[in-house]
Design a protein that fits this description.
Belongs to the prokaryotic/mitochondrial release factor family. With 121 residues, this protein is α+β, with helices and mostly antiparallel strands. It contains four helices and three strands.
Length: 121
């Protein structure tokens, strides 16, 4: 199954095909589904399924992308993100977002501090 062409430049489409070949990711390994986006965009996003969810079956990595109002562009962006995560996994690095990890730790710390404030005496 050939890699589809997306509504981005030919150069970006070529880069995506080369990167997938380099990392050994086949289009058949990707499970793709579409859901309605959320957030700004009004009636347009409420009636079109522009949000893309992709799962790479061999590794179990899942990506959800709804950055653009175009489904085709979101399909490209989701594939790009999944390739970045697969590459990090192959290098032995964590594929989690460091900013998200930091935010998660901050929330946990705040929750611990707040729960200690209001204990019954």
């Amino acid at each position: 199954m050939a890699t589809p062409t997306f509504a981005v430049s030919e150069e970006k489409n070529r880069w995506l095909r080369e990167k997938m070949t380099e990392l050994g990711v086949a289009e058949a390994d990707l499970e793709e589904s579409f859901v309605r986006s959320s957030g700004a965009g009004g009636q347009h996003v409420n009636k079109t399924a522009t949000c893309v969810q992709i799962k790479h079956r061999p590794t179990g990595i899942e990506v959800k992308c709804m950055k653009d109002r175009s489904q085709s562009v979101n399909r490209f962006l989701a594939r790009r993100e999944i390739l970045v995560r697969i590459e990090r996994l192959q290098k032995g690095e964590s594929f989690r977002d460091p900013k998200a990890e930091k935010l998660k730790k901050q929330k946990a710390r705040r929750k611990r501090r707040a729960s200690g404030k209001y204990e019954k005496e």
